[in-house]
Amino acid sequence: MLKWTFKNARFTMRNVIIQCLLYGSLTLGIWTAIFSIYFHHNHVKNQEKKIQEKGNPLIWSLGKKLQTKHGSMQIPRPYVRVKRPNEDETTEQKSFLKLGKDFNYSDPELIHGYSKYGFNSIISKNLGNHRDVPDTRNKMCHKKQYPSNLPTASIVICFHNEEFNALFRTVSSVMTLTPQHILEEIILVDDMSEFDDLKEKLDYHLEIFRGKIKLIRNKKREGLIRARLIGASRASGDVLVFLDSHCEVNKVWLEPLLNAIAKDPRMVVCPLIDVIDYVTLEYQPSPIVRGAFNWYLQFKWDHVFSYEMDGPEGPTRPIRSPAMAGGIFAINRHYFNEIGQYDKGMNLWGGENLELSLRIWMCGGQLFILPCSRVGHIDKQHTANHAGILKALAYNNLRLVHTWLDEYKEQVFLRRPHLKYLAYGDISERVELRKQLGCKSFQWYLDTVFPELETSKRVS
């Protein structure tokens, strides 16, 4: 009996110990949860305080754009921007603060606008459908006279999920600042936009431009290159003028372009592209620059030497440009067809600007930037479907390399060896086009048009 009592007591004690351990663990867990909630609450409050003081971290990161400075003016950035070593970001890190201390950086609408459109959609909405921009031309441009019997222009503007007000300002600036007798039409190509305000709302607002607008809606997503070809196929003007869907043209912007093409139908011309700041949407003048590229096939803006602007025309003199940015240019419609339009085998966008630039120079044409023609352009800060764009860019660049660079394609592969093994489709039609046009070699292009590129022998 005593033995049984001892065993029972030991069993009871063991249960008590187990229960104590369980209750202790439970109590410890509860206190741990309470402390975690407390510290998380404090952390959130501190983060909110920082947001109020410095602005939302997401938006702040959007402020770190890169621009090359030239005096007090900004050089327009390439459409595909790749950071290069030693670029100074200090000034640009402050650019977002231009909105002022009273601006609500934690506003969800602001964040949503940047992620959706790549620029400040709140300010764009406040600016509305039209605004007056400063005349950024050199004063010598004001004295130039242009013939009244210039060729007519078809303006082709392609868009996909563009911010409504930016698109409409593009159209209304063209309508307001272009003489109607030289404006044949504006052709809008909607490349399968998904946003509601680009459907019935856009149709309704475009009614005020009835008679000058053609609106084409693609049945499937084509990408910029093929969308532009669709627009060009519907054009009836003497000259095709391609614009991006987030531009604002300046005073007397079209006459210099048409006048140059009237003198030489094989001349392709671009306006000087002014900067519309993506944060403030302030219209800022660009210095005189020319288009260029490196062996990575990255487009870049290049300074123009002062001696290139000597002579009676001074800073109004047309600038010989090895390459174009591609978003904004004018070309004789028949010449565009004659030299093979765009490479239809390219996807989405990217690389088509350099391919067309090489084709123009190597096949008997000329490419110039005209400082007396000014067009502002918003430098968007994001690209939707980034992976898809990079894939298309590599594919398109390879088509360019194997069609136009001859033995110099090894310079590209030396710097980007992975490209050597990627597919690029059938280029036989483009190779045949080069033969039919009697185009010169890439060596001729380096010697005659862009000797600065050949001197860069090292990998950089």
From TrEMBL:
GO cellular component entries: Golgi apparatus
Origin: domain of life: Eukaryota
Cross-referenced Gene3D superfamilies: Spore Coat Polysaccharide Biosynthesis Protein SpsA, Chain A
Residue ranges annotated for the Glycosyltransferase 2-like domain, each copy included: 154-336
Protein location: Endomembrane system
Cofactor(s) it depends on: Mn(2+)
Membrane topology: Single-pass type II membrane protein
Signal peptide from the UniProt entry: none
Transmembrane intervals: 20-39
Key words, A-Z: Disulfide bond, Glycoprotein, Manganese, Membrane, Signal-anchor, Transmembrane, Transmembrane helix
GO biological process, one term: spermatid development
Family statement: Belongs to the glycosyltransferase 2 family. GalNAc-T subfamily.
Name of the protein described by the UniProt record: Inactive polypeptide N-acetylgalactosaminyltransferase-like protein 5
Gene assigned in the entry: GALNTL5
